[in-house]
Amino acid sequence: MNFKKVCILGLGYIGLPTASTFAMHGIKVLGVDTNPRIVEMLGKGEIHIHEPGLRDIVKAALASGNFSVSTKPEEADAFLIAVPTPFQENKFGEYNGQTYKLADMRAVISAAEVIVPYLRKGNLVVLESTSPPRTTVDLIAPILARSGLQAGRDFHLAYSPERVLPGQILRELIENARVIGGLTPESSQAGHDLYKIFVKGEIIKTDATTAEMVKLMENTYRDVNIAIANEFSRLADKFGIDVWEAISLANRHPRVKILSPGPGVGGHCISVDPWFFVETAPELTPLIYHARKVNDAQPHYVVELVKRALGSLKSKKIAALGLAYKPDVDDLRESPANEVVRLLQEEGAQVKAWEPFKPDANLPGIDMASSLEDAIKDADAIVLLVKHTEFVRLDPQAIALKTKARIIIDTINGLNHEAWKNTGFSVYRLGAGK
Ligand code: SAJ
Questions:
Q1: Which ligand 1 atom is the nearest neighbour of the CA of 162?
Q2: Among this protein's residues, is 7 annotated catalytic?
Q3: Do the strands 98-103 and 124-127 form a parallel or antiparallel pair, or are they unpaired?
Q4: What is the distance in A from the centroid of ligand 1 to the CA of 248?
Q5: With contact defined as beta carbons under 8 Å apart, do 275 and 240 qualify?
Q6: In whole angstroms, how far apart are CA 173 and each of 21, 26, 197, 277, 298?
Q7: Residue 234, SS3?
Q8: Would you say the pTM of this structure is higher than 0.90?
Q9: What is the pLDDT of residues 2-46, one digit of tens each?
Q10: Which segments of 168-207 does DSSP mark as H helices, in order?
Q11: Residue 434's pLDDT is what?
């Protein structure tokens, strides 16, 4: 199939890089977002999200004349849906006394609905949003059928998961292998032809529900493996050994690759996607359910560690280093560090948080420091929550001059502990057995 114009619905972390990349490959792209503020900003060449290299490619795409933005779609050869699928805020599912979170599919539903008047025979529609299994077949196809056209007969319909790592989106978008699951083999082929425009990795064709499963399986696999690492950190504490040493030794086994424990699992992917399996098959997913619970409970475990270091937290002054959900990104969504700060405050601590990637973040109830110095100067203890490169490089001697704190709690094994100890700090580490 030949594509001249693509309409992309949703200009977030996936839609915007994808739209600009298509445009830079000579395709006419209309980017659509329901948020007029985002459309207005993009119209002026400004972007609303932080991702290395994104600003430049968006600017170049707009300047090329191939990329335009609007709040409404237009006719196109292909429509790509890349809108968020968060949780429902106030509704939960229940199975055997266990509650689980439910996907909020409203953005996907309305994106499919707005395409309907513009859909023409021979078009391709691709859903990229992470979705519960069977969404393409059971939810999207019936909505698009309101056009009078039938998916798989009159137009092509496929699911293709995004798999890019935040922080490396522009490179991974092009280099990663891409799975494309069509309603029919012809739909898969049409999807293949579309992504072939810029994807250098392998493009593998399958059916729509398999492609949906693949995406959820990847992130669930990672979540379950982080959960076991977190449980190992608790066991190491109990048995008085160092989990980091034990993991590195276990990983010498040719078929073992244990991930890293930490303060919990955050972001909008790994801490969300496993719930889509639990929601659609709670009776089949006890392991996935409990892995989620283990990771969600890890911030509580970190607070216990801080209590071990400081005793009662009442009125204690704590500097929290890092609020992002993972190293060297500015994304604070679903961040376990954030949760740790809130829990410390619930225990009566006075926390000052320093996030170098988003110093101006406005998080309700969290006292943001204006600098590292501001965070640590009056602190009784420092808690390291994110493995940002600049935190790993902190010089204990320089820090000792700027704070009265002589206790540091390292939840990510990011420090040279001997150096910190030699400088007079008591070092408490997650999973270090004491
Ligand atoms: N984490 C640990 N221990 C580890 C690895 C990660 O505690 O050993 C934590 C991180 O600190 C973070 C969370 O897990 O809080 C998730 O981070 P991540 O780097 O594992 O993943 P994401 O959420 O940034 O991106 C994932 C990726 N999926 C997989 O690696 C299977 C990415 O490829 C997906 O495109 C993305 O989810 C997505 O959009 O679904």
A1: 35
A2: no
A3: unpaired
A4: 20
A5: no
A6: 9, 17, 12, 25, 31
A7: helix
A8: yes
A9: 999 999 999 999 999 999 999 999 999 999 999 999 999 998 889
A10: 169-175, 185-195
A11: 56
